[in-house]
Amino acid sequence: MGDHDDLRKFITDLAVVHGRVVLSSGREADWYVDLRRVTLHHEAAPLIGRVMRDLTADWAYDAVGGLTLGADPVAAAMLHASAGTGRAVDAFVVRKEGKAHGLQRRIEGPDVSGRRVLAVEDTSTTGGSVLTAVEALREAGAEVVGVAVIVDRGAGDAVRAAGLPYRAAYTLADLGLVA
Q1: pTM of the model
Q2: Is 176 annotated as belonging to a binding site?
Q3: By CB distance 3.0 to 4.6 Å, which of 37, 45, 124, 142 could disulfide with 155?
């Protein structure tokens, strides 16, 4: 098995939780994909970095991140996976709101102004979180080259409608789930 198949197994074994839940979009579902069980797992996190780097290998970007909290471990995994490859990337964190103290930054980490960046998320249903991050990145002067998620729950159309390329490492069908 390769990285992609290994990561899919981690997701189906650890992250797919069956039972009635209300999603952040307000929709109800009979199952939930709790990707933090995988993105913060010692064996799965390195796989995430490699799978997401492979997924976006043909896109030119030098920093990766998104709206905290879902994007943080994805961006960190990609940062670590890029080390020593000759194509290193920085990671950043987009806050939901700017801080009221300190430097009052909304985007933490290396400056993104004038840089080509990739917006990421662990999973997305409506695209709301990642599009909020995209808006903040553009306001900060970054050029967003695209959006990539580990699991797509249906956000692709909304992200593409916003004029951005969109990729997902896995669809619900890949995980044996029905929307």
Answers
A1: 0.93
A2: no
A3: 124
Q: Strand ranges (DSSP E) for 41-165?
A: 63-67, 90-94, 107-108, 116-124, 143-152
Report yes or no on 5 lying in a domain.
Answer: no
24 or 78: which leads in pLDDT: 78
| Domain residue limits at 99 | 45-175
Instruction: For residue 69, give the CATH number of its domain.
Output: 3.40.50.2020
Token pair 């909290």 is found at 69
The 10s digit of each residue's pLDDT in 91-131 is 999 998 765 555 568 999 999 999 999 999 999 988 999 99
Q: Do the annotations mark residue 127 as ligand-binding?
A: yes
